[in-house]
Amino acid sequence: MNSSAGEFAYIDWVRQQTPADDRLLIGPGDDCAALRWNPAAPALVTTDMLMDGTCFRLSEAGPRAVGRKAMAVNLSDIAAMAGKPVAAVVSVALPRREGRTLAEELYRGLRDVADAFNTAIAGGDTNSWDGPLVICVTLLGEATPRGPVRRSGAKPGDWLLVTGPLGGSILGKHLAFTPRIREALQLHEQADLHAMIDISDGLAADVHHLCEESHCGALLRAEAIPISNAARTIQDGRSPLDHALSDGEDFELVFAVPATDAQRLLQAQPIRGITCVHIGECVDQGFWLEEDGKRSALEPRGYVHSFQ
Amino acid sequence: MNSSAGEFAYIDWVRQQTPADDRLLIGPGDDCAALRWNPAAPALVTTDMLMDGTCFRLSEAGPRAVGRKAMAVNLSDIAAMAGKPVAAVVSVALPRREGRTLAEELYRGLRDVADAFNTAIAGGDTNSWDGPLVICVTLLGEATPRGPVRRSGAKPGDWLLVTGPLGGSILGKHLAFTPRIREALQLHEQADLHAMIDISDGLAADVHHLCEESHCGALLRAEAIPISNAARTIQDGRSPLDHALSDGEDFELVFAVPATDAQRLLQAQPIRGITCVHIGECVDQGFWLEEDGKRSALEPRGYVHSFQ
């Protein structure tokens, strides 16, 4: 955070907006922020950069929704480790013409969701340029005493559960989703979560990531996969199931638990208002979709940033 | 860190490059990184976003120098609080065409300076788009037992010292500077640093920030300000002194200490190879430049990201 950081009036405004917070020893406006850290907890760190035209369309979504999304995608990563968010820093490159208004609306959107999850905005770096809006949030969290849930602990025989219906998030959920922070903490208390990931690339792609890290395979059952209303609405020649398997940015969690824990969780539903769905199992190897009693290889399709 | 994060081959490559590090409980490739934290130390957090065409010219500097700068500017912010760097996360938006080679060279540049300052690269988010290169590093550090040095503790009567010659960094130093981490730690051990800031916007602007936060004024003596060879080389109609006062990105430190501490430091020079220079004092109010025995108001000029 050097202070070549936008109109200083904006930084002053941000400082006025920053509520007192015991965790925040030094807030916005110095060279660094300083945080009081829970000595018993490993620190979790995640970062996501969103670019106008690629991850959102500023002209359609508006800046407040963009700020909200930029914070929420990071909260979702903390949820995927079953951690608690603590504080975020926010860097932006603002289009020069509309900078100040844009900056304030972005900040309001960031705060909307940060406040909802008890997350301090500790500082940032505000730039302007002739390019499109770029926003990068880095979020710090703490692992619970049970430790972070990784992608790598799934075992053959584990059941795979998902926290909500999937597909078609482009119709709105990608901006308005609720990060599954509270649900993940409760699941982590109630079950032996072997592995977990948030669905940002698409169910098939993200289960594939989880299985790769866990050195196992998976079998998903088509009839069991919860399909969102949005996925059923899109008329683009792809089936609702295909949308549920391949669309990114649902930001639900998919997790692997021993069968006995899974059965217990399913019986204890709903969990903080949500209903988990059993969509398949981890297997020794291979990556399969079972549909109408037939098993076929499942492509780990999903959104990938491609470059040479 | 969602996994829509560039070619997965690149993430695998980064994981192979990541050395074992006791502080890094979970490194690149999961939803979050996890760090073991020093329970006695407040966490310092800083973030800086650099954009091609604004903060560097990729075609002139090359990607390795850009990666180096992106890490070094953050290290300089940790130095400005007299902290120790611990770990960084790195988000990038890569131009689609040359992504992979660019990503690897950026990473090498980031590691060059991270390794030199015992800083782990814990994770990141790799995107591609049709825009110019944007890179955002967030750096975590820890305060020493003496605490972070803020901008706000300067008192009238304090001497102002600077860690090196200033001006003309555009000729090369803005890419190749050494963050003053080691020097700051030693200064913090040897003196009662009341306030400190790194010179990113320009000496006049940054001393002004320090004074504003400290609710005091400053008097700088023109004859005492160390002027770099680069500032003397530029032939653009502005004086070398003007360059030293107004050019940004020198990334030297300027700090306020009681006169007795300042005198002791100046006698004990050099400090880890550098020579601090006494450039003026903090005063009750006003912001002054003394030149040829005459005192004039000093404009806090420097680089500011302007937007409406």
Can you offer a commentary on this structure?
2 copies of one chain form a homodimer. Chain A is α+β, with helices and mostly antiparallel strands and 308 residues long. Chain A has 2 domains: 8-143, 60s Ribosomal Protein L30, Chain: A (2-Layer Sandwich); 159-297, Alpha-Beta Complex (Phosphoribosyl-aminoimidazole Synthetase, Chain A, domain 2), CATH 3.90.650.10. Chain A is built from 10 helices and 13 strands. Chain A has a 7-stranded mixed β-sheet, with helices on both faces. In chain A, strands 3-6-4-5 form a 4-stranded mixed β-sheet, covered by helices on one side. In chain A, a hairpin with a 2-residue loop joins strand 12 and strand 13 (294-297). The radius of gyration of chain A is 20 Å and the shape is globular. Chain A starts with 7 loop residues before the first helix and ends in an 11-residue tail after the last strand. Chains A and B meet through strand 2, strand 3, helix 3, strand 4 and helix 4 of A and strand 2, strand 3, helix 3, strand 4 and helix 4 of B. Strand 3 of chain A pairs antiparallel with strand 2 of chain B, so a sheet runs across the interface.
Sheet with the most strands, sense and barrel status of chain A = 7 strands, mixed
Indicate the proportion of strand residues of chain A. 25-35%
What is the average per-residue confidence, as pLDDT of chain A, rounded to a whole number?
Answer: 93
The CATH class name of the largest domain in chain A reads Alpha Beta
- CATH superfamily of the largest domain in chain A, please? PurM-like C-terminal domain
Query: Hey, which two chains have the biggest interface?
Result: A-B, 93 and 93 residues
Class per helix and strand makeup of chain A: alpha+beta
Q: So what's the oligomer here?
A: homodimer
Work out the count of structural domains of chain A. Answer: 2
CATH architecture term of the largest domain in chain A: Alpha-Beta Complex
What's the helix-strand series of chain A? HEEEHHEHEEEHHEHEHHEHEEE
Q: Radius of gyration of chain A over alpha carbons?
A: 20 Å
- Count of runs of 4 or more consecutive helical residues of chain A: 10
Rounded to the nearest angstrom, the distance between the terminal CA atoms of chain A is: 32 Å
Number of strands of chain A: 13
